[in-house]
Amino acid sequence: DPILVDAPVNTILRSFMDVKNNKRVVHAVSVGSPEKVHYTYDLDKGMVAQVWRGEFLDATPMWHERGNGCSRPRGAVQLLGEPFFTLSKLSSPQASWMTDTTGSGYRPKGYVLDENDLPTFRYQVYGTAVSDVVRVLPEGHGVRRELTVATPVDGLYAKLAEGTTIETPSKDLYVIDGKSYYLQVDDAGGEKPVIREAGATKELIIPVHSKLSYSILF
To answer: What element of type H or E holds 159?
Structure first.
């Protein structure tokens, strides 16, 4: 029999999670909401790995008999790329993105819950503290993410999205992978995102000073 996890209230489950191209997130935190809009956060990279609408999780692979530690979304999943670090320090807007923690001092600090049992994720990188808040948008249109950097870091950028195509039909709105999902920049502290080539894919990156907020619409 399947072992299903519902989210009648804000619900958190930690597990392994297989994402794009069968890459495994081993420190995944899945956050479910009664609005039936859910997401998975990768603690090892400070990344929102996927979002989905529908029911919450199938924990059968994790809890049946010996299990393999994995859970699976129950719904229409929107993957947000192979696992990557959200923040990276670049010498120029064309410099290569961080692929490991060497020289970054990256250290996950877990998460704290607010009065509604919703998490604020925390980590340290490049000598500064970062808080990362993801919340469901009104009427369940997607999620809004707000990153706060305690102390500004020279050359610090955030990767907002990656995909085969990234288009910008209007100011502050970006279309990823032929309308797979939309990204709306809400507050970038006056900075403007840059679309750049990265091998066979495109990346949407932006300088980060203290706060950055954007919405993932799907």
So the answer is: strand 156-163
Residue pLDDT, tens place only, 164-180: 999 999 999 999 999 99
Question: Which residue intervals of the chain are DSSP H helices?
Answer: 60-63
3-class SS of residue 108: strand
The predicted model scores a pTM of 0.95
Q: Is 168 left (phi over 0), alpha (psi -120 to 50) or beta?
A: beta
> What are residue 129's DSSP bridge partners?
124
Tens digits of per-residue pLDDT, 70-95?
999 999 999 999 999 999 999 999 99
Provide long-range contacts, Cβ within 8 A and 24+ apart, for 164-173: 164/200, 164/201, 164/202, 165/202, 166/195, 166/202, 166/203, 166/204, 168/195
DSSP string, 164-212: S-EEEEETTEEEETTTTEEEEEEE-TT---EEEEETTEEEEEEE-SSEE
Q: Are 71 and 77 in contact (CB under 8 A)?
A: no
The residue to which tokens 């309308």 are assigned: 179
Which residues are CB-contacts of 114 (< 8 A; sequence separation ≥ 6)? 120
* Three-state secondary structure call for residue 27: strand
